[in-house]
């Protein structure tokens, strides 16, 4: 039978003599469009990135304000970057900086508690408040695209695992609000994405399915003997089992499909945070490769955890400092704002490198660049010292989804809280001087343009029109 190369789907491959050979993405895949056929829809990707400890926010009368504040000066398309943000200048037409957004349920919480709710908007709170979380933005989008790729999402962090309540090592939470463990080891991430597993995988999947079936039978029998409260707990557990079933079935569909062929010789996969700059670059590169090979269309990366605990605090050593978290405490010292800003400048530089690579890469078998079809959110759930308001946020990419960039959207007003902590009352404890816009309004906007049927998210009250 004659093989029509123009009809080969991007996940098809040639079979023969018991072997499978992966095909590259051919430019001729676009040929049917020239003959009047309907154009293939570009993939729509989402990447979310979190950094802890807030950003430098010297007051306007402070000499450091002009050069070392994080937020730009002026707004609209007439904004100017400070030295802290200068690495992003070549990309200003690809990004939007936002201020004056936060989650209403956490505005009076200590900033160290905030990573957990950055993508959820939940009232994870502090003190004696009972901890409960909800689904995160990335996993809401997974409902739309998770079954279209080998991996529903890629969840990463510098510290790995889940961490603790209000001390998360992950910014991804499932539909029941349970933390999704993050991977922090470059080699394990690379192997998962691009290295074939052993030949025993099919047998283990069959055993997993059998074990899940047995558990469901036992659980249904047990349910009849439980109280109402225990039945609710069991139902939550059974939901986890059902999600595991879905994953097993998906894995069975993909088990014989060849993995993408990637040359990883340029990557040092044995890195740790002892080589902080190269480590960060490698983590961003792995996300880039996962997107480029269409291994997943959803990724999160928690660059650091709050409160200066864990290996992520060592990232500041890339620019000559010891621990990152302490920089946010030392802004009252001579040169303190500059030191903190230099660390944030380093994060901006490496994030900008990642954005730039997506911009330089044509969409495989599609139109535009990878950046045009990838929506990126970069930010923190603190601004000034431990302040859970006016989150520093950068939105990038997604031009083929209708996003327009090259602007600073300032919802914070002319007098955002800031300044160095002098040892007295902390900024988060002070009276709210400005009512922020719900960050979930931005999330609802993002989801709708990504193609989600979701009309609202968390406590959203509308959408954002000018992005």
Automatic annotation (TrEMBL):
InterPro entries documented for this protein: DUF1552, TAT_signal
Coiled coil: none
Transmembrane segments: none
Pfam families: HXXSHH
Keyword Repeat belongs to the record: no
Superkingdom of origin: Bacteria
Keywords of this entry: Signal
Position of the signal peptide: 1-30
Keyword Signal: yes
Name the record gives this protein: DUF1552 domain-containing protein
Organism: Rosistilla ulvae
């Amino acid at each position: 039978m004659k093989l029509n190369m123009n009809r080969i789907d991007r996940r098809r491959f040639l079979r023969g003599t018991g072997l499978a050979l992966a095909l590259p993405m051919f430019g001729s895949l676009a040929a049917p469009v020239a003959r009047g056929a309907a154009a293939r829809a570009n993939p729509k990707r989402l990447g979310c990135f979190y950094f802890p400890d807030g950003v430098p926010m010297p007051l306007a009368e402070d000499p450091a304000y002009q050069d070392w504040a994080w937020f730009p000066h002026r707004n609209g398309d007439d904004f100017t970057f400070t030295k802290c943000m200068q690495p992003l200048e070549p990309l200003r037409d690809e990004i939007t900086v936002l201020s004056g957004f936060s989650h209403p349920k956490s505005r009076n919480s200590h900033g160290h508690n905030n990573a957990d709710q950055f993508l959820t908007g939940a009232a994870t709170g502090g003190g004696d408040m009972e901890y409960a979380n909800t689904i995160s933005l990335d996993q809401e989008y997974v409902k739309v695209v998770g079954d279209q790729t080998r991996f529903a999402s890629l969840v990463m962090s510098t510290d790995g695992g889940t961490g603790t309540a209000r001390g998360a090592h992950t910014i991804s939470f499932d539909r029941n609000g349970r933390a999704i463990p993050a991977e922090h080891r470059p080699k394990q991430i690379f192997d998962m994405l691009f290295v074939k597993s052993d030949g025993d995988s099919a047998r283990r999947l069959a055993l997993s399915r059998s074990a899940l079936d047995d558990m469901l039978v036992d659980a249904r029998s047990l349910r009849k003997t439980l109280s109402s409260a225990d039945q609710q707990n069991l139902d939550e557990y059974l939901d986890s089992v059902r999600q595991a079933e879905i994953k097993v079935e998906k894995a069975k569909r993909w088990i014989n499909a060849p993995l993408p062929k990637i040359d990883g010789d340029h990557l040092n996969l044995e890195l740790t945070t002892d080589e902080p700059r190269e480590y960060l670059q490698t983590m961003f590169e792995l996300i880039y490769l996962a997107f480029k090979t269409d291994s997943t269309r959803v990724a999160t990366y928690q660059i650091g955890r709050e409160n200066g605990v864990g290996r992520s605090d060592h990232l500041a050593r890339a620019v000559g400092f010891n621990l990152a978290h302490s920089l946010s405490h030392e802004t009252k010292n001579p040169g303190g704002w500059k030191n903190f800003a230099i660390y944030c400048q380093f994060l901006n530089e490496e994030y900008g490198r990642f954005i730039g690579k997506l911009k330089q890469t044509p969409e495989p078998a599609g139109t535009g660049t990878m950046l045009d079809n990838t929506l990126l959110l970069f930010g923190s759930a603190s601004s000034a010292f431990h302040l859970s308001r006016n989150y520093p946020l950068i939105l990038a990419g997604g031009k083929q989804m209708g996003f327009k960039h090259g602007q600073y959207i300032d919802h914070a007003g002319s007098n955002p809280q800031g300044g160095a902590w002098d040892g007295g009352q902390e900024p988060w404890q002070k009276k709210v001087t400005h009512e922020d816009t719900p960050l979930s309004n931005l999330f609802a906007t993002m989801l709708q343009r990504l193609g989600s049927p979701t009309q609202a998210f968390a406590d959203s009250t509308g959408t954002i029109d000018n992005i």
